[in-house]
Amino acid sequence: MKIKLLIIFGVLLLGSCSSEDDTTDDFPIVNNNKVLMLKVDYLTNTFEG
Fold first, then answer.
1. Which of 8, 23, 28, 49 is deepest in the core (most CB within 10 A)?
2. Average pLDDT of 4-33?
3. d(Cα 36, Cα 49) in Å, to the nearest integer?
4. Phi and psi dihedrals of 46, rounded to 5?
């Protein structure tokens, strides 16, 4: 009985995965990525830029 449940669970798990999952449409790709570097002063707990 446990074997049948594990097989059914495995089939459902593999069936739920689809190759058509494309999440790139939700988040547009930005070509100009910018990075802001901040230095932390641990004595006063403030950021210095």
1. 8
2. 72
3. 8
4. -125, 160
Q: Calculate what percentage of the chain has a pLDDT beyond 70.
A: 63
Mean pLDDT of the chain: 76
From CA 4, how far away is CA 9, in angstroms rounded? 8
Q: How far apart are CA 12 and CA 33, in angstroms?
A: 40
Q: Are 37 and 30 in contact (CB under 8 A)?
A: no
Three-state secondary-structure class, residue 35: coil
pLDDT of residue 13: 83
The number of angstroms, rounded, from the C-alpha of 16 to the middle of its chain's C-alpha atoms is: 18
Assigned token pair, 1: 């009985």
